[in-house]
Design goal:
The chain is mainly alpha-helical. The protein is about 85% helix and about 0% strand. It contains 10 helices and no strands. Helix 1 runs antiparallel to helix 7, helix 4 packs parallel to helix 8 and helix 6 packs antiparallel against helix 7. The radius of gyration is 20 Å and the shape is flat. The protein starts with a helix and ends in a 6-residue tail after the last helix.
């Protein structure tokens, strides 16, 4: 078709750079598990792999949020930048609700989670689960920043950030895994994700000339922290994981509403599958 070759060239130009960045991300995401096996042995590799599997599975949360909001943001750019900024802020707030809530719950209930999913032999890995859930907070915002990279055409910058992340990951893991084992690998994962996400998000915000509104994000963080305290109190009564999950969900929702981090009209709109802007 006439003019299609130009579009194909543009698609290839964007796709190659973005794909290369994606490969670097996959490398630093998976390399630590290989290094744990090589330097710390199969036992620690098994413990670390079990916890990492949980991290992999919970990523459906940011993926679901961005699957819904990415087309809205893309359609608004560049003709309606105020709407793009509003949608970006809303996306960040929703992602914080999911990721910070998961972090707070796992800080308190990591051991029963590991024992239920993998058995008592994996109980020692409970100390690493909250660390990787800390990485999950950064990963959640990384999904948002990564999608904005495509919209704003920042693929080359992202490639550079991913390369820095890979280098940082390799160096720190080689230095820290031999003396400290798989717990060091978990902390290196946090450091790598924070570096790549923060640099990418900084470029996105600069391109949009946007300053985040921290008020609602702070309310979400406070709600998550208070929920964690409540679940910790419930655990002292010896409650199993199922009731703890129910208590956490009910308490977290109540706190989000009470602190105005979440509005009733937003819940109603989500239930009716209406657009929130």
């Amino acid at each position: 078709m006439a003019g299609s070759s130009r579009l194909w060239r543009e698609l290839l130009r964007v796709g190659v750079v973005l794909g290369a960045g994606g490969i670097l991300v996959i490398l630093y995401v998976r390399l630590d598990q290989v290094l744990v096996f090589q330097f710390a042995g199969s036992r620690q590799a098994g413990l670390y792999g079990a916890v990492y599997r949980i991290l992999d599975q919970v990523q459906f949360i940011p993926l679901s949020v961005m699957t819904t909001l990415f087309p809205l943001i893309a359609s608004a750019y560049p003709v309606d930048l105020p709407r793009v900024r509003r949608l970006l802020q809303t996306s960040a707030e929703y992602l914080s609700m999911g990721s910070l809530g998961a972090l707070a719950f796992t800080i308190v209930a990591a051991r029963p989670i590991m024992v239920l999913l993998f058995g008592a032999r994996f109980g020692p890995a409970a100390s690493v689960l909250p660390i990787l859930m800390g990485a999950f907070v950064s990963i959640s915002f990384g999904y948002l920043a990564g999608n904005m990279v495509v919209i704003l055409g920042l693929q080359r910058r992202f490639l550079g950030y991913a390369a820095v992340g890979l280098l940082l990951n390799v160096v720190l893991n080689l230095l820290l895994i031999p003396p400290y084992g798989y717990k060091a690998a978990a902390w290196v994962t946090v450091a790598t994700e924070v570096v790549v996400m923060s640099q990418t998000m900084r470029s996105v915000l600069k391109e949009l000339q946007m300053r985040p509104n921290w008020i609602r994000l702070g309310r979400v963080a406070l709600s998550a922290a208070a929920m964690g305290v409540g679940v910790a109190a419930a655990r002292r009564f010896g409650l199993p994981l199922g009731p703890l999950v129910g208590i956490a969900a009910a308490e977290y929702l109540a706190l989000l509403l009470a602190l105005r981090a979440l509005r009733p009209r937003e819940i109603a709109a989500l239930l009716r599958r209406e657009q929130i802007d």
